[in-house]
Amino acid sequence: MKHILFTLLLLGITTTPAFSALQTEVINYTDGETQLKGYLAYDNAIKGRRPGVLVVHEWWGQNAYARKRAEMLAGLGYTALALDMYGEGKTATHPENAAKFSSAVRKNMELATKRFKAALNVLKSQPTVDPEKIAAIGYCFGGAIVLEMAREGLDLDGVASFHGTLGTTHPAQPGKVKARIRVFTGADDPFVPDKDIKAFKQEMDAAGADYRIITYPGAKHSFTNPDADKFGKEFDLPLAYNKEADEQSWQAMQEFFKEIFK
User: Fold this and answer.
1) N or C: which end of the chain has fewer CB within 10 A?
2) Is 48 part of a structural domain of the chain?
């Protein structure tokens, strides 16, 4: 084995990740007087501009999980910005606080849109980003937010919602949705019941939106987050990680991006 490793080193072959030139940076930006903290990730080995992707966090806030997804996107060749919807980089570790933070944003669509746009402007201004090629992904709370931004008609190439709720008080209007939409949801997610999926389809059809819903059998809420099992047990919530659904939805997102960023 030592001889093999030595030979590999002589040949300049290493086992380091494909994005060994990963660069990350905390970016401070503002929405009015509110300070926001974003987390930027990109591969510095890639030259020139590339598509940018916003990552909208779960109801826990912009924590390590959201930042990990930004880094994974950087590994795929994108510049990713994990944004801050709560302000001051605020996060929660208990559902009561998470619900309080997330509902304050969900109930104020003007605020949500302003904070999303503030991050969008930051991402577009990065020297590694092609401002004409922008997408957004979101998880749980964040999944609902990216769908709302699509309903608002923001100029995005696409949005992908991972186990995000589908209901809204601001339904999409005909011809307004510009972004192509992917919804990845669990068949056993009590927060995304069949009636909501049916209503979402009717809404998107009426709006003339380009969308697709992919449902994963046996998957519960928060199926992409490895910490879901821990949170579910600790707080008696219907959360569970599903490795197969996580990997399949991530692959489907990659295929979606290849389509929209042609």
Assistant:
1) N
2) yes
